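Hello,

Our lab assistant flagged a job as stuck in the queue for most of the afternoon. It eventually completed. Since we weren't sure the result was trustworthy after the delay, we are filing this so someone can double-check. Below is the sequence as submitted and the structure that was eventually returned. Let us know if re-running is recommended.
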Amino acid sequence: QVQLVESGGGLVQAGGSLKLSCVSSGRTSIYAMGWFRQAPGKEREFVACISWSGRSTYYADSVKGRFTISRDNAKNTGFLQMNSLKAEDTADYYCAADPDGLTSSHERDYRYWGQGTQVTVSS
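-- returned structure --
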């Protein structure tokens, strides 16, 4: 059973940065990893994903150029570096793991999910 635990969320001013981490308790080095977010009153949406090897990444248009997804397979950890944060980035952020190992922006492709970490950006 794979468990994912996110950390690194918090309160930051607009224009600031945060780095989220997602630690896996299982062997997820061959899994693709994705980040999703859910703002209050809205549906969960895709943010970014990375293939098992790290060679392939994909971003939502809303975060492209500001967020960077990465991973350290030796430590079973994924990261989401968030720069130039905006008020509209405020949401609960979730990491997810996809056993297929390939990048996907679809929630249905991810089998394992973390509990989320809250990010609040003040304007």
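-- support follow-up --
The delay was a queue issue, not a problem with the job. The result is valid. The first strand starts at residue 4 and ends at 7. The mean pLDDT is 95.
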